[in-house]
Amino acid sequence: MVILSSTKVKEAIEKYPELKDVLIDISPKFKKLKNPLIFRLVSRWATFSDVAKLGGLSICELLHRVNRAVGMEKELFESAPECIKEMKREEKPAGEKKPDWIEEAKETLIYDVRNRDDFFLNELIEAANNLKGGQVLKIINSFYPAPLIEMLKESGYSVYAEEESVEKFCGYVKSKEKATDENWLDKKEEFQLLDVRGWKEDPFTTIIKMANDTPPGSGFKLIQIFEPVPLINLIEPLGFETHVEKKGMFEYHIYFYKKLDTKVREKRIEGGRVPLVVQSATPVVYPVIMRILQSREIMDRVKLEGLKIWDKTEKHLAWIINGQADVSFSAVAAVTKIYQKGLNIKMKAVVVWDNFFILTRGYRAKDFGDLRGHKIYMPLIKSAPPYIVTAHLMKRFGYNPDDFEFVFGDPFGRPEEIKRLLVNGKIDTALLREPEASFALYDGKGDIYESIVYRDLWEKLYPNMGNLPNAGIVFKGEIVEKYPELTEIFLKETKKAIDWLNEHPEDSANTIYDIMGINPEAAKLFLSRAHFEYVNSSEALDRIENYVNVLYSEGYGSKGFNDIRDLFI
């Protein structure tokens, strides 16, 4: 891969991870890139043309240095005319001048960040969001602020940037015209179309996915052979307004518009239905949640105000801590930690699935000893359960974890990224959880092996304890206290959903593959390997106690099971 001026830094780093250190060493102006947050933002938004501006370098000088570092300079020489052409294209067009709105501003707010080394990007974004009519934000920096400029442009702001001197770049941001929800029907025919007439499979999950993916201020159009009142009742609480037109005996056009203000409002019971926000820390329980939401027992009693499936597991904890989520599918280990903050939450059941696997590429490992000499890529961080459990198992089977080389991400090892590296042959050893483990085996086409299964090791160490009780259903305390009957119904329907998944893996795969963005065969493999199990917390206290105390013995958390027992009863 030849790196050109239009190449995104993110794409180059994914291909050549060593480029991160190369960039930081090129210019003193890049010292701020040592801040992981700043580096991730720059890499996501900036091209190498932007980086050249940031460092005060000529674009061709930069391109030759980075291509030389990755062994592609010969290929760049062959593309040198393209380098020069792209450099010229990036130059400011002749005759371009400041927009009139800069001079006509009623008030200019100035942020001079030239001497700041902290992470101030979120502060500038907030300042832009708070701009009022007639105000302009002026940002002074020592380099071209490419990430900020691109983020603001994508968000719909008018932006202008200019170089006043070698060490002074100024960016100007104009306040946005305030959008409203009025007259949204005038643009309804511009909505994305979803015609489900004649579909053999249930379109429920596809519609829910489209609703979740629809940004505020836009919408989608559904065509169905009947008026889907239950579906409308489900989607409206997610921040939508609806409009139904009957076009014929068997043709209904339903328009869904997501309002600009979609914040969860004060909860109040309407028509006997309790408002709930449901979330999951991981996509692994997609099939369970999708099945629950098709339960009449649930939807007759619940007004769904929000549904969120996180791809970055740590983010869901904020929703538990700030009380935004009423029901959460969460890791047992993470919940035990935040429970110690004094939160009023209850984990009423555990949902277990096969969750930790050492996968290898190009060789098979019979035990941990065969992993010596290989870099073991791990999800999350060293103080998180994947490594904690690994270290515990290694020690109990006679190995010293210090004799192995573990690799963690910056700042987190993301399972999806680790899976991609393994599938692409960039690494040969990784611990993966579900569903990424199954997806890696499917995409690996026989070159990736399931070498070590933690379920088997756990059973040898702790007979009759079953699989690791890795996740559970967490309720906000007030939900359990105010609506005990609803809590029990939700638990009952969760068990029924899991029983159905285990009995109908192929049917389940056909309903989830699209919303999970995977191949149907990969979905089938995942469901055949996950082995979902539902157990009431009161019936699994010995299993939970064993698991929590294992984590505690390895330094995870400040309290053992006896100190947090009330979380589970």
Tell me about this structure:
- There is one protein chain.
- This protein is an alpha/beta fold.
- 40% of the residues lie in helices and 20% in strands.
- The strands form five sheets. Strands 10-9-11-18-12-19 form a six-stranded mixed beta sheet.
- The longest helix has 20 residues, at 484-503.
Describe the SSE topology.
Blueprint lengths: L8 H7 L3 H8 L9 H10 L2 H8 L3 H11 L3 H6 L1 H11 L9 H4 L3 E6 L8 H9 L5 E7 L4 H9 L3 E8 L2 E7 L17 E4 L8 H10 L5 E6 L4 H7 L4 E9 L2 E8 L15 E7 L5 H7 L3 H4 L2 E8 L6 H6 L5 E5 H8 L5 E8 L4 E5 L13 E3 L7 H12 L8 E3 L7 H9 L5 E4 L3 H9 L3 E6 H8 L9 E6 H6 L1 H20 L1 H12 L3 H11 L2 E4 L4 H13 L7 H4 L5
Parallel strand pairs: 1-2, 5-6, 9-10, 9-11, 14-15
Antiparallel strand pairs: 2-4, 3-4, 6-8, 7-8, 11-18, 12-18, 12-19, 13-16, 13-17
> Radius of gyration over alpha carbons?
27 Å
**Poorly predicted sequence stretches spanning 5 or more consecutive residues:** 81-95
The fraction of residues in strands falls at 15-25%
Secondary-structure content class: alpha/beta
Could you tell me the number of beta strands? Answer: 19
Number of helices: 26
Major β-sheet strand ordering = 10-9-11-18-12-19
